[in-house]
């Protein structure tokens, strides 16, 4: 298991609670959004949620209940500003995006094949693509230093994709897919439409499947325009372009376990649907989520505006708090986290020193996620999740400050920019 | 996809409904229990079900929420009459027994390995063990004719297991596991304790893992004693004995997607738990099912006694109805179905004729399951599910009668016993 799982297990064993366990582990490591649970809870108590017809408790279509897929298709058509109306037949419902990765990795490629992925990236993808599919990541390393060709840190370019692909070929790895996370995890930035198109063209040139992970699609809190792959007028290779989204992040319900695959490739979908029986969602859950999606008034005027406002506020709170204690962050527009630069607090610019810092923070009962967990190529970066209550953010800053500014963690001068 | 899936898809496309679609497909093919949904529904409306703490909507232990596993451990300890109290640490919760098969097949063996399984058996196991695990079934063929060594039709003996194992070895198949379904699907009978022990001893001799599928454990409607593998005082090979159960059948909630693995093998469980993230259950569902399991009074005095009574009545209704139209069934004690002998209605004693009969019944909008779907070695047997409302059972008999006693399906004399 990776560092993210390891950290989460430590948290589960001793979770912070204001009243019951104030000295417990404070979790800003796991990407969850609890900011709008009050709205979710209120909506769940309305009568439409309670009508549970007997059918929901019996076997149903393993691809997902038809009426639920219809609601998802309408929802994504509008909220992803789809170029054309989505067809419910192209949608498969599974118990989380983990399952979407598991089925795609099994179906798209053969064991041992590789997939290109810009690093840093959500490290859970490694095990999700490996455990059933036995696929290996081919990293496209990104760095914080800005060169002439780039406009910002950790910028992806097609040249970097190309270089990574050629390196993999030389190593004898057959690369079959490209995974892009947009909004990005952990960077929190968004692919400009132009770069997205260039990446799709690149994938098309090499006949790579593209897996677009847009699980943070509606967790954009800046006034920036987000371009979903579904919104592009013409895809270079629609048969090899697969989209995933879920309720975990944008609805703040990681525990409800519902992810969605959209693909127009019938062969791929047929194969995925065969596996979907292993990843199916309870009927009552499909019913309840349908009710959310049907309620446009609530989503348009209550939930999403409030969520965006609260994300923005929480992000600012954390970023300001970090600035106060001398920790800069990368500018971000989407996702539930910031990518923070702790390099000047490392004893040396190594991953050993990064892990040491992580461990010290854990000793102080603060869980954040080290760059290593995201296969970052540059030590000293950490992901901090801000979609938490105000008091937890303050407490995080407090614990950080105590740790970073005690003697043994005295900043060591180094040449890295910050 | 197999015949069971094919039949179910036909049903889903045109489901019978008393008022809205009285000419639709009547489904006595899918093993579901709708007899006690009134009780489930009533129980679901009590206030303890509604208390949904925020944690349930966030990430939790992929092995299953600890408090839910504790309830399952207590429940199985009592209801399976376990030899010793079960440890919640030995339990993994997944989204259905499909997922238990998928993870075990991936973890226990290598692709291409075989598992012994007495045939007929629930045919869905083929794809569940194949799609991720790539394991192949090694059939132990059973027949209806009773010989000197046997006391009843389709009887399993250790000699038959032994013979199948040796045949597989000669074919170069490495057999690594034995799957036993108890109560049996589709036969509806129960393994006597003595035979169960002999099978476990056999497996131990050959170092085979034993997967005990006891998903119908509490759907025993006869006054026969059911022996769960959990109840045995000493297992020949506890490290290779794995137990599965779920809420689908015994609680009549196939659509809730919750299955349970119990194993005392830590290595196996660790590996399964890594995969469990792909098969996790929603937190709110784990909460709701915990409430069921906590309510001993309701289970002991309301649900299970009523369920047993209704199963018994429904079984008798179907068996009597079948007898009236000349269709004998195998004596059964558990499960939701009977194994019915349609051999005298086949044009020839072949699987082609069996499929032809199946198709004709489907043309009459009656879905039952042909023996071929259970890898039966003898054509002419069908599984009929009786855990249905009275009017559906009557209608099934009516449609059967119309079909079987029209001219072109005139009984053809044959020598097979019936």
UniProtKB/TrEMBL annotation, chains A, B:
InterPro entries: Aminotransferase_I/II_large, Ethylene_sulfur-biosynth, NHTrfase_class1_PyrdxlP-BS, PyrdxlP-dep_Trfase, PyrdxlP-dep_Trfase_major, PyrdxlP-dep_Trfase_small. PROSITE patterns: AA_TRANSFER_CLASS_1. Keywords: Pyridoxal phosphate. GO terms for biological process: amino acid metabolic process. Signal peptide: none annotated. One of its GO terms (molecular function) is transaminase activity. Residues 25-386 form the Aminotransferase class I/classII large domain. It holds the Pfam family Aminotran_1_2. Belongs to the class-I pyridoxal-phosphate-dependent aminotransferase family. PANTHER family: AMINOTRANSFERASE CLASS I_CLASSII DOMAIN-CONTAINING PROTEIN, BIFUNCTIONAL ASPARTATE AMINOTRANSFERASE AND GLUTAMATE/ASPARTATE-PREPHENATE AMINOTRANSFERASE-RELATED. This is 1-aminocyclopropane-1-carboxylate synthase-like protein 1. The lineage of its organism: Eukaryota, Metazoa, Chordata, Craniata, Vertebrata.
């Amino acid at each position: 298991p990776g560092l993210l799982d390891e950290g989460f297990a430590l948290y589960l064993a001793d979770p912070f609670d204001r009243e019951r366990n104030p000295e417990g582990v404070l979790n800003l490591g796991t990407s969850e959004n609890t900011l709008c649970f009050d709205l979710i809870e209120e909506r769940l108590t309305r009568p439409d949620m309670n009508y549970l017809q007997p059918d929901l408790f019996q076997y149903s279509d393993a691809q997902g209940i038809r009426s639920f897929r219809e609601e998802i298709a309408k929802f994504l058509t509008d909220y992803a500003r789809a170029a054309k109306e989505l067809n419910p037949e192209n949608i498969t419902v599974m118990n989380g995006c983990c399952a979407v990765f598991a089925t795609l990795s099994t179906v798209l490629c053969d064991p041992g094949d590789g997939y290109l992925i810009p690093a840093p990236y959500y490290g859970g993808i490694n095990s999700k693509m490996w455990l059933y599919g036995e696929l290996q990541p081919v990293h496209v390393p990104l760095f914080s230093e800005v060169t002439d060709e780039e406009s910002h840190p950790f910028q992806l370019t097609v040249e970097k994709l190309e270089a990574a692909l050629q390196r993999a070929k030389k190593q004898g790895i057959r690369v079959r897919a490209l995974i892009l996370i947009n909004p990005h995890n952990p960077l929190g930035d968004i692919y400009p439409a132009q770069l997205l198109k260039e990446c799709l063209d690149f994938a098309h040139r090499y006949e790579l499947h593209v897996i677009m992970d847009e699980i943070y699609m509606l967790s954009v809190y800046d006034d920036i325009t987000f371009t979903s792959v579904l919104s592009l007028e013409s895809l270079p290779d629609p048969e090899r372009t697969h989209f995933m989204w879920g309720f975990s992040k944008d609805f703040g319900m990681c525990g409800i376990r519902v992810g969605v695959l959209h693909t127009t490739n019938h062969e791929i979908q047929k194969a995925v649907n065969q596996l979907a029986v292993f990843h199916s969602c309870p009927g009552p859950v499909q019913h309840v989520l349908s009710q959310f999606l049907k309620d446009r008034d609530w989503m348009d005027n209550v939930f999403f505006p409030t969520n965006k406002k609260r994300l923005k506020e929480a992000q600012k709170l954390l970023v300001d708090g970090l600035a106060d204690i001398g920790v800069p962050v990368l500018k971000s527009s989407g996702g539930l986290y910031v990518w923070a630069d702790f390099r000047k607090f490392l004893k040396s610019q190594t991953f050993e020193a990064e892990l040491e810092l992580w461990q010290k923070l854990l000793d102080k009962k603060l869980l954040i996620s080290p760059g290593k967990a995201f296969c970052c190529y540059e030590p000293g970066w950490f992901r901090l999740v801000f979609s938490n209550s105000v008091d937890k953010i303050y407490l995080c800053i407090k614990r950080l400050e105590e740790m970073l500014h005690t003697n043994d963690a005295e900043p060591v001068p180094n040449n890295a920019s910050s």
